[in-house]
Amino acid sequence: MPTVRDLYHSGRLSQYLLWLACGAGVVGLLAARSLVALSPVAGVVAVLLNPDLPNAWRYYLRNGAALRAAGLYLFLLISGLYTSDMPDWRHEVFRQLPWLGVPLAFTLAVPLRAWQRVAVGALFVLGTAAVGLATLGQFVTHAAAATEAIRLGRNMPVITRVFHIHFGVMLALAFFWGVELRRSPLARPWLRGVLLGAVVGIVLVLHILAYRTGLLALYAGLLAAALRLLWHRRWGAGLGLLGLLVAAPLLGYQLVGPLHQRWGATRWDVNQFFSGHDINDYSLARRLAAWETAAVLVRAHPLLGVAPADANAAMMDQYAWRDFGLRPENRIMIHNQYLHALVGGGALGLGLWLAVLLGPLVQPGPRRNPYIRHFVVVFGVALFVDSMLELQTGYNLFVFGYGFLVVAAARRAAAPQL
Q1: Do 336 and 295 meet the contact criterion of CB atoms below 8 Å apart?
Q2: What's the CA gap between 206 and 180, in Å, rounded?
Q3: The pLDDT of residue 257 is above 70
Q4: CA nearest 11: which of 106, 111, 103?
Q5: CB-count exposure of residue 250 (10 Å: 0-12, 13-18, 19+)
Q6: What is the largest CA-CA distance in the chain?
Q7: DSSP single-letter state for residue 80
Q8: Whether the predicted model's global pTM rises above the 0.90 cut
Q9: Residue-wise DSSP of 257-278
Q10: What CA–CA distance (Å, rounded) separates 112 from 118?
Q11: What pLDDT, on a 0 to 100 scale, did the predictor assign at position 418?
Q12: Is the Cβ–Cβ distance between 135 and 159 less than 8 Å?
């Protein structure tokens, strides 16, 4: 039996602690927020226990994905020179430390083995599906009241209290990763069967609970997959998937009551804004008002923005000039990550953010990785309708996924695993 000393010198101790940090991060995102805070601690210890730590630094300094994330954090630090809200700037400097810490963990600790990565991915897929199905069970138990709430534009709360927008994105990611994991040669037959059940369950949850952002991300990802198949001249599969993308929403609209109700509520919601009606009780209408408000700030501060820490105060000040009839408590933030980056950081801030998000797609290796492609597409679409990175769960979800997939893939490409 190997001793602790043997485990240290072989690198397995560092590797297992990084694996533990990943598992804690997944569970924390789904159910236990405290584990999200504790998982970076395990990641730091994993780094310190790497027997080749002095030489591992060269992998970080050559890792473009990690350096792009560091550049985004560096811009936040520099924005302190022109911010007018120092307390909030200091809070953001602390809150966004994972831009540095997570990539450091995935480059300086001993990399995970393939079976460990599959285990983390399966935990995410199966855990997300389980939470979704439990929430669906709660919906079925109170079907009449839940359907009426959807008709009025409200959402079924997730059983573990994850924000419904974030959870919808988790469901979309879990769907695509579940499909890919079933193809892994490391997935045993029983796991493939369980993953198939999880994927089917996720589709049901998204459509019956009618989580709009998750459905948008799901269908955008499927469209991207269909176009990729056509690009590679796999005409039958590509055209078949396109046909499914047309038929599934139409059938869902006819057969799934909550989806029908959600579509009607969405149209009514948007119409309130363009008709000039009272929009205080309408989610999408308030977002449209927020986008118009943000556009004014972008035109006034095009290069460097108002400073990331000042975005909230600047929005409220602009609402004071034109409030769209909104009461103060209903004057929401931007709900579009790209527009939020423009408001806070101008063209430079948006450019840095796009380099982080889209950087993997301009490199052949990451672009061929289906997990990374799905990650970029799902987030890339979802961030058009929500500023997910401004709330902690959405931020943690993105940074963890970015580290686990993009940064770790660049690290593996640089050198073989120990």
Answers
A1: no
A2: 19
A3: no
A4: 111
A5: exposed
A6: 73
A7: G
A8: yes
A9: HHHHHHHHHHHHHHHHHHTT--
A10: 10
A11: 43
A12: yes
| Cβ burial 129-147 (10 Å sphere, 16+ → b, else e) | bbbbbebbebbeeeeeebb
Q: Which amino acid is at 72?
A: L
Proportion of the chain above pLDDT 70, given as a percent: 96
DSSP sequence for 336-382: -HHHHHHHHHHHHHHHHHHHHHHGGGGSHHHHH-HHHHHHHHHHHHH
| Residue 248, token pair as written in the block | 């599934």
The pLDDT tens digits of the residues spanning 69-85 come to 999 999 999 999 999 99
Give the pair of three-digit tokens for residue 120. Answer: 């983390």
Q: From the CB of residue 316, how many other CB atoms can be counted at a distance below 10 Å? A: 13
Q: What are the helix (H) ranges across 31-85?
A: 33-48, 53-61, 64-78
Torsion-angle region of residue 222: left (phi > 0), alpha (psi -120 to 50) or beta? alpha
Q: Long-range contacts of range 329-333, CB-CB < 8 Å, 24 or more positions apart?
A: 330/280, 330/286, 331/290, 332/286, 332/287, 332/290, 333/290, 333/387, 333/390
Q: What are phi and psi of 415, to 5 degrees?
A: -160, 150
The average pLDDT across 140-158 equals 75
Tokens of 395: 């931020």
DSSP of 155-201 = -PPPTT---HHHHHHHHHHHHHHHHHHHT-TTS-HHHHHHHHHHHHH
- Which structure tokens are listed for 300? 């006034």
Give the residue-averaged pLDDT of 333-354: 95
> What token pair was written down for 169?
């994105």
- 182-189 long-range contacts, CB within 8 A, separation 24+: 184/118, 186/114, 186/115, 186/118, 187/118, 187/122
Query: 60: phi > 0 → left, psi -120 to 50 → alpha, else beta; which?
Result: alpha
Structure tokens, 363: 């490199």
Residues in the chain: 418
Predicted pLDDT of residue 153? 65
